[in-house]
Amino acid sequence: VKRLVAMPGQTVEMRHGTLWIDGHEVPHEDVGPAGPGVRRWRLTLPDGRSYVVLKAVAGGMLDDAPATLLAPDQLFVMGDNLDNSLDSRAPSAVGPVPRELVVGRAAVIFWSHDLRRIGTAVR
After folding, report:
1. Among 54, 57, 72, 77, whose Cα sits 20 to 30 Å from the Cα of 63?
2. Element (H, E) at 59
3. Half-sphere exposure of 95 toward its Cβ, with a 13 Å CA cutoff?
4. How far is residue 12's CA from residue 17's CA, in Å, rounded to a whole number?
5. Number of alpha carbons in the 13 Å side-chain half-sphere of residue 33
């Protein structure tokens, strides 16, 4: 399961671990540790939606991704574990996702390392 972060017509880029959409930096706030050497960041997308991701490694292999202009039928998705998720930032493995391949929306957290989150609704 991945999060939709950009829509057709938008340009997406990763620079030094920071997400940029349409030339604007997506704000991220450090909200504390998630475990040894792992931080939790709250990302706030241009539409105001925010969510928490995990970030452990500076200079990770997906911290830099070239600017990608999404075609009319493409979506840009990212996993919540920024250092351990093959997603649209990896053009040779996944890249932008054709809209027709999106078949549903996550509704409930089925599994989490934080057992308190299991069974909670996905926002």
Report:
1. 72
2. none
3. 10
4. 13
5. 3
Task: Report the alpha-carbon distance of residue 96 to residue 24 in Å, rounded.
Answer: 19
The candidate with the shortest Cα–Cα distance to 66, out of 45, 85, 91, 98, is: 91
The pTM assigned to this predicted structure is: 0.86
The one-letter code for the residue type at 10 is Q
State the pLDDT at residue 88.
Answer: 95
Which residues, in sequence order, are bridge partners of residue 44? 50
**Tokens standing for 37?**
């050497």
Coil/strand/helix, residue 100: helix
Per-residue pLDDT reduced to its tens digit, 50-83: 999 999 877 788 899 999 999 999 999 999 999 8
